[in-house]
Specification:
The protein is an alpha/beta fold. The chain has helices at residues 54-62, 64-67, 80-88, 99-108, 156-167, 185-191, 203-211, 236-241, 243-259, 263-273, 278-283, 295-307; strands at 42-47, 71-76, 94-98, 113-121, 127-131, 147-150, 176-179, 196-200, 214-218, 228-235. The strands form two sheets. The protein has a five-stranded mixed β-sheet with strand order 2-1-3-10-4, sandwiched between helices. Strands 7-6-8-5-9 form a five-stranded mixed β-sheet, with helices on both faces. Strand 6, helix 5 and strand 7 (176-179) form a beta-alpha-beta unit. The termini are far apart.
């Protein structure tokens, strides 16, 4: 049985962004008596049940947020694109989201955002294009003209597939993307609705066990190796009103990322928030979890988006990455 490595992601999706409400801040009036000098001690964060968010849950389990004076409540969303409008609308303070969704929203002027912490980076075996065990598709070149399942259009999944196809000399315009949530992708493969599927962990391992799926392309190598995938963001207005709170959140996340270097710690939290069993958790390997924030690293994502014509002009991410305003 295949035991694909994880560095996994994602279920990050880019739903249509035109529905997002442009808003510079979603902040209530900061509490005057916040403990430890924090502007806010109670915050809500939109998250996804994917492996990139492991350091967040480690920070909760280990008490890293509480050490910083924060009481953090996670609110689970189906995608980053769903979470972003919740943040701009004021129901949550920050979001865990893929950078494709966030940078597209920033470029469209949906709101002014700030990346306050990085979450995970790609690596070999972290993502892949998979088929059923009886599929005639054997390699990347044979994906030309095929129906490929992705969790959302024009998001991190399609960006990774496009680049993987390009590296193999396949025109990405020749494929048909079929949108389906990752939890439904196995059924879509079985039914023949899609001929291949772009998958992250833990779905790779789960479907390898359940269906014996086969990988035809690794979407975490070559030009995609160490590509930043997702991070935590808030509106610029929120960061300006709550600079100490934002800094405390960043410190806790980065401490969680340091702890996540221990595979066993990731396995523990994944079983609870991603709803995978102990055996499945043991088969996957953690993503690369950055312990710092680096605008140069994130610029790779924006440049790749421009190359794939997801941006109309070059986007300089430096001004909105980090806590300085």
């Amino acid at each position: 049985m295949r035991r694909p490595l994880l560095r996994g992601l994602l279920a990050l999706s880019l739903a249509p962004l035109l529905a997002l409400t442009a808003c510079g801040s979603n902040d209530p009036t900061p509490a005057a008596d916040s403990a430890g000098g924090l502007e806010k001690t109670d915050i809500k964060v939109g998250v996804l049940p994917v492996l990139g968010v492991a350091p967040f849950y480690i920070a909760m389990e280990k008490g890293y947020f509480k050490e910083e004076g924060l009481n953090v409540t996670p609110e689970v969303f189906k995608s980053g694109a769903d979470a972003i409008p919740a943040m701009t609308g004021g129901s949550i303070d920050a979001v865990f989201t893929n950078y494709i969704s966030l940078f597209t929203a920033q470029a469209k002027g949906v709101a002014k955002f700030r990346v306050i912490a990085e979450a995970s980076n790609s690596a070999p075996n972290s993502f892949g294009i998979y088929v059923m065990p009886n599929s005639p598709i054997k390699d990347t070149k044979e994906l030309s003209g095929k129906k490929i399942g992705v969790n959302a259009p024009n998001n991190i999944a399609t960006v990774l597939v496009n680049e993987t196809l390009k590296s193999a000399g396949v025109d990405s315009k020749s494929v048909q993307y079929i949108v389906a949530p990752f939890p439904e992708m196995g059924a879509r493969l079985q039914a023949g609705d899609v001929e291949a599927a772009m998958l992250p962990e833990p779905f790779i391992t789960q479907l390898s066990i359940q269906l014996g799926i086969k990988r035809v392309a690794d979407a975490g190598i070559g030009t995609l190796d160490a590509l930043p995938i997702d991070g935590y963001a808030a509106t610029e207005g929120w960061v300006k009103q709550n600079p100490k709170t934002a800094a405390a959140f960043q410190r806790a996340i980065q401490k969680g990322a340091q702890t996540a270097a221990d595979r066993s710690e990731v396995e523990k939290v994944v079983q609870s928030y991603a709803k995978v069993d102990k055996n499945t958790a043991a088969l996957v390997a953690p993503l690369t979890y950055p312990t710092s924030i680096n605008p140069t690293r994130l610029q790779r994502v924006a440049d790749l988006m421009l190359a794939q014509q997801l941006l109309e002009a070059k986007l300089d991410v430096g001004p909105f990455v980090g806590l300085s305003t």
